[in-house]
Amino acid sequence: MPAWPSDPSDRRDGTTRASSAPGSDPLGEAGAPAPISLLDAVRREIVTGVLQPGTRVTEASLADRHGVSRVPVREALRGLEAEGFVESTPNVGSRVAAIPVDEADDLFAVREALEIATARRAATRARALFSVDAPPEDWWRVRRSLERILADGDRAVADDDLDRLVDLNERFHFGVAELSGSTTLATLLRQLSRKIEWLYALDTFSRGKRLWPDHRVILAAIDAGDPEQAAERMGWHVRESRIGYLSRTVPAAVVDALRATPPVVAPTTASAPSGAPRVGADGPVAS
Q: Which of 2, 15, 66, 268 has the fewest CB atoms within 10 Å, i.e. the most exposed one?
């Protein structure tokens, strides 16, 4: 993954600007660079390997690097310590923490359950919105953004641009969480995704193009207002990512068990209506 830009606009309020900061504009709506917090910027440097595990990080060095005062640096370090990205020792200082490789399977298992919930909720919400009248503009804004993300991802696959694909994959999943309408689920997903992205810093070649087509199938199930199908598709999609990562670190029997055991998809009490609309980037598509 490309290094995080360290070319701030000498801001003193703890924000910096980056023209292509992954996650700073998760749905790709903004045309101009958006301010990002210092905590986000330093976290991205850790996740992408610009700041390696064990690297000593000081208020002075980070303030100089990002063109801010020490006050926002101090706050950012506290936040990163709370998230587990930085370890601080009294009278010694702060260092980048070790990547939580031993927690990998647990992190993926939690993400699997979380993403199943967001996909199911997104489909249930779409069904409810279409059954009354039509989704509001904010729903369509996210839906159009997802369509652009899918198109950009298809081009990235064709161009073999894996760095770009990693960013688009993250933005797609955040977009589905936004479609769910749950701020809690979206926030949890962002927090968890940062840790999983950090795991991948150890193996930048493990993230291929094979699973990208799954996204269109997942989104189609959401558009159709089919919670069961959306949840199942998302569950297997995340499960395959989990298998792909763990296949290099755990015994084959563990991987085989994951392949043989379907993701847990909680049932819903109602089924999708047979007349659920097909949805395109700009609105419902006539049958």
A: 2
Question: 211 and 150, same structural domain?
Answer: yes
Do 88 and 142 belong together in one domain? no
Residue 258 domain-assigned (yes or no): yes
CA distances from 198 to 21, 82, 194, 203, 245 (A): 16, 16, 6, 10, 12
Cross-strand bridge partners of residue 278: 285
18 bridge partner residues: 34
- Shared domain for 253 and 147, answered yes or no, is yes
How far is it, in rounded angstroms, from Cα 14 to Cα 35? 10
Contact criterion met (CB below 8 Å) for 230 and 221: yes
Q: 78: domain range?
A: 15-96
State the number of CA atoms in the 13 A half-sphere of 61 facing the CB.
10
> Phi and psi for 88 in degrees, rounded to 5?
-120, 140
User: pTM for the full model?
Assistant: 0.73
User: Which of 80, 96, 112 is the last residue in one of the domains?
Assistant: 96
Residues 6+ apart with CB under 8 A from 121: 180, 181, 182, 185, 227
pLDDT by residue, tens only, the chain of 287 residues: 322 223 333 344 454 433 333 333 455 443 333 456 899 899 989 988 889 999 999 999 999 999 999 999 999 999 999 999 999 998 889 999 998 888 888 999 999 999 999 999 999 999 999 888 777 889 999 999 999 999 999 999 999 888 788 889 989 999 999 999 999 999 999 989 888 888 876 655 555 688 999 999 999 999 999 999 999 999 999 999 888 888 888 889 988 999 999 999 876 554 444 444 445 545 544 43
